[in-house]
Amino acid sequence: MEPLDILFRQVPEGYEFVGVLLTILGSLGILVILGAWWQR
Q1: pTM tops 0.85
Q2: pLDDT higher for 29 or 40?
Q3: Which pLDDT does position 33 carry in this prediction?
Q4: What would you report as the CA-atom Rg of the chain, rounded to the nearest whole angstrom?
Q5: At residue 9, does pLDDT exceed 60?
Q6: How big is the CA angle at 14 (ends 11 and 17), to the nearest 5 degrees?
Q7: Is-contact 19 8, C-beta < 8 A?
Q8: How far apart, in Å, are the Cα atoms of 9 and each of 14, 15, 20, 28, 39?
Q9: How far, in Å, are 6, 19, 26, 33, 37 from residue 13 at the CA level?
Q10: Is the pLDDT assigned to residue 1 strictly greater than 60?
Q11: How far apart are the first and last CA of the chain?
Q12: Tell me: the pLDDT tens digits for 23-38?
């Protein structure tokens, strides 16, 4: 979990939840795109 620690050190105080949210949304977006490509 070292990269996450480095990432969160650069995030301003109080914005951790935004980083987590963007990470989750990004992961879901990638899964959706991969799923759509897989379905072709």
Answers
A1: no
A2: 29
A3: 96
A4: 14
A5: yes
A6: 80
A7: yes
A8: 12, 11, 13, 24, 39
A9: 14, 11, 21, 32, 38
A10: no
A11: 35
A12: 999 999 999 999 999 9
Specify the 3-state DSSP secondary structure of 40.
Answer: coil
Residue whose C-alpha is closest to residue 3's, from 17, 19, 26: 19
Matching residue, tokens 């301003």: 12
Question: Any idea which residue has 């959706």 for tokens?
Answer: 32
The residue whose two tokens read 């072709």 is 40
More confident residue, 3 or 25: 25
| Residue position matching structure tokens 């995030």 | 11
What single-letter amino acid sits at 13? E
